[in-house]
Amino acid sequence: GAGVSQSPRYKVAKRGQDVALRCDPISGHVSLFWYQQALGQGPEFLTYFQNEAQLDKSGLPSDRFFAERPEGSVSTLKIQRTQQEDSAVYLCASSLEVAGASYEQYFGPGTRLTVT
Amino acid sequence: KNEVEQSPQNLTAQEGEFITINCSYSVGISALHWLQQHPGGGIVSLFMLSSGKKKHGRLIATINIQEKHSSLHITASHPRDSAVYICAVRRPGTYKYIFGTGTRLKVLA
Predict the structure, then answer these.
(1) What is the pLDDT of residues A58-79, one digit of tens each?
(2) Taking CB atoms and an 8 Å cutoff, what residues of chain B touch A45?
(3) N or C: which end of chain B has fewer CB within 10 A?
(4) What is the rounded (10 degree) CA torsion for A8, A14, A19, A23?
(5) Alpha carbons within 13 A on the beta-carbon side of A81
(6) How close does chain B come to A102, measured CA to CA in Å?
């Protein structure tokens, strides 16, 4: 595909359920970012991958959040034992960025997670 | 105090007006991005700046590193420009981006 895709686009989970959110970055993009966007707020950084290496996970809000990118392409963000405060849009972005240089980020459409 | 502040938070303009959205930051940065987010839609990167000025169509972005300030200008605004505009900065030596809370722009026909 031409852009970053995410699935599912919408997810409703009961409190306590585990969820897995998928991101397919643009082919060949080295860098992949996950962000969390609460309603009416700007995105907040969660974690960063360079190829398969998770180089920064400082934004993950708790140990219930886990992200992986095992082959350096598709990434999955997993949230265990979901809580209501996890309700947000989860955005994925990819870029050609390497070695600390800044490149344009391409964002996916996001997954809207609602925890009931 | 947020590390990235945007003003105004909300802006309503008439079609054709010149629009300025401001972004101030309190940390050292290696790059600043301006992003556009339509209601219910994804985020599109408009500009990436580390110095000076960039222009794309009716959009102009400037940055003053010494004053830790950037502006996004829209000339001859149009209703299709209605969106949330977000400023994001990257700290040197990190991969983390810090986002402003956005400026919600509505352009009336």
Answers:
(1) 999 999 999 999 999 999 999 9
(2) 96-99
(3) N
(4) 30
(5) 3
(6) 7
